[in-house]
Amino acid sequence: MPSMARSRSGTLAGIRSMRRRLVLGAVPVLLTCALRAHGQTGPSRRVAFLSGSTQTDTAAFFASFLDGLRALGYREGENVVVDARFADYSGEQARALADAIAVGNPAVIVASSGGIAPACGLNPPFPVVFIHSGDPVDAGFADSFARPGRNATGVSLLTLDLIPKRMELLREFRPDLRRIALLCSPEHAGQRHELAAAKNAAAQLRMEVTYHEARNPQELAQILPDVVAARPDAALLFSDALMVGQRHTLATFFLKHRIPSVAGWSAFPDSGHLMSYGPERHVAWRRMAYFVDRILRGARPSDLPIELPTAIELVVNRRTAGAMNLPLPPALLARADRVVDAPAAS
What we know:
- This protein is α/β, with parallel strands linked by helices.
- It has two domains: 6-157 and 282-303, Rossmann fold (3-Layer(aba) Sandwich); 160-279 and 312-340, Rossmann fold, CATH 3.40.50.2300.
- The chain is 39% helix and 20% strand.
- It has 13 helices and 15 strands.
- It has helices at residues 12-25, 55-71, 91-103, 116-120, 163-173, 191-204, 217-229, 241-245, 247-256, 267-270, 281-296, 318-323, 330-335; strands spanning 6-7, 29-32, 45-51, 80-86, 108-112, 122-123, 128-132, 152-156, 179-184, 208-213, 234-237, 261-263, 275-279, 312-317, 338-340.
- The strands form three sheets. The protein has a seven-stranded mixed sheet, with helices on both faces. A six-stranded mixed sheet has the order 2-4-3-5-7-8, sandwiched between helices. Strands 1-6 form a two-stranded parallel ribbon.
- It is elongated.
- The relative contact order is 0.13.
- The model is unreliable at 1-41 (pLDDT under 50).
């Protein structure tokens, strides 16, 4: 796999200049959170957090991570400082923030979305704990799930075995479902695995597949007329960064054309899509605290197996179903972990 190493060398003046730019562009959030781990105290340790998205989009999940630390016995103001920074969906900003974080010599870096690659690519490396929507092996962050073998470990939200279930749930809404549109970004790590799993599931369920890919919002806008032209009975969205970022636009599009859509994260039905079936992300974010705790106690990321989600949820948007004139199967509603009654996208 290609090397992801990036140099941290540079003059003191260059570092100061970079840090001034960061203060102006993305002010870090300094949090004294916890740490009396299981009743023990010790020297102050520094934990950095780097998100590729915005503080607003990350706030609730970041709070779940901090809850995970507290559940492990961490106490506010004791001996850990969490330095949280947000790249606002800018790759350049994420790389600059990673370099600035490295100057502070953290004990571990927690990273999500577009912050993972810059954190893993620092040279010399720091221990990294990630929550990744795709395949961390395909992305080059680890050698394998069981033995990461590098400086990073954490949680992968890639749940291939749930893809057939999503299609089956769609068929409960539309028993006549014969053709399904797949939408994704080909740049998403793990996309090839998800596509193969989706096509195999469709074949088992005797569904015809139409495949539509886009790398950015502009390409997505260009392919949407092709989706309509394919006349699908439903749509399956992969939970990659592009689809998540464009979920509101897509919900409006699918409602307009009466195409029921399903994805893996609850953010989709919360935004107007019909349904989601997949990882409960707050549980996964809390789990990252376990990895941080292990590393602070001396474990190496290379020896800590990457985990898959343990909590799965079904979320249904009842308003969207009504707007599409889809009857709500009572058995499906009974199984739902949450039913969204907020207005459907328009």
